[in-house]
Design a protein that fits this description.
Blueprint: H1 2-8, H2 16-32, E1 39-44, H3 48-53, E2 62-68, E3 79-83, E4 99-103, H4 112-125, E5 129-134, H5 154-163, H6 175-183, H7 190-196, E6 201-207, E7 210-218
Parallel strand pairs: 1-2, 1-4, 2-3, 4-5
Antiparallel strand pairs: 5-7, 6-7
Helix pairs in contact: 5-6
């Protein structure tokens, strides 16, 4: 279980996830190194905690807007929190942000049309973007840590979530809630990710030689 736990939990002692996240953020810092400060960043679906952990809340470096379904009070003078929908960012103008950043969000927004809407909005409001998502074809599904979970039919996934502690909160006893949790993750493979972000370069994060996730980045 150490390997599986380390793949999912960025705070675990084994910490494969932590190393991947740190490596990804180091790549992000390389991408933005030449941009004038402060950089106007929109984090789609993120949290303030992430930027605090990455030690990137210096007001001289950035102006960060965190967009999520809920908007807790901002804890830093250069951070703004906004409640909103990643698929419809009407509050923002075209090219309003220097960089749009999104980490493991697009697989949660819904069906193909919703993913396409989010991708279009990211490309619209950001002069540049940096969007990460797990790889559909990595053998271990990253949210539930079960081999090839993503390829099982919804009833089978729901049954597993009802009977085994695969989710962060443990077992999900209610059948419909378990199936809804399974439906709430819609991973994408490389081909589809390229179609969502056709003007991007793709950075691959690898574990044991396999692509665990992808980052679409443009404009750097």
């Amino acid at each position: 279980m150490g390997l599986l736990h380390g793949l999912r939990d960025p705070e675990s002692g084994y910490s494969i996830a932590r190393r991947l996240r740190s490596r990804r953020f180091a790549f992000f810092l390389q991408c933005i190194a030449g941009l004038p400060r402060p950089i106007r960043i929109l984090d789609v679906g993120g949290t303030q905690d992430f930027w605090e952990t990455m030690e990137f809340v210096d007001p001289t470096s950035s102006r960060i807007t965190v967009l999520n379904l809920q908007a807790p009070a901002a804890r830093h003078p250069n951070v703004t929190t906004v409640s909103g929908d990643a698929c419809r960012m009407d509050a923002f103008e075209d090219g309003e942000f220097d960089v749009v950043f999104s980490n493991s969000v697009i697989e949660h927004v819904g069906d193909d049309a919703s993913q396409e809407a989010m991708a279009a909005e990211v490309r619209r409001v950001g002069r540049r973007y940096f969007v990460q998502t797990p790889n559909l074809y990595f053998p271990i599904e990253p949210h539930f840590m079960f081999p090839f979970f993503q390829f099982l039919p919804i009833p089978a996934r729901g049954w597993l979530l009802q009977n085994f502690a695969l989710s962060w909160g443990g077992r999900i006893p209610d059948r419909e809630s378990a199936r809804e949790a399974a439906r709430g993750v819609r991973l994408v493979g490389l081909s589809r990710f390229r179609k969502l972000f056709p003007d991007a370069a793709i950075y691959r994060e690898r574990v044991l030689g396999l692509s665990k996730s992808f980052v679409a980045h443009r404009g750097f």
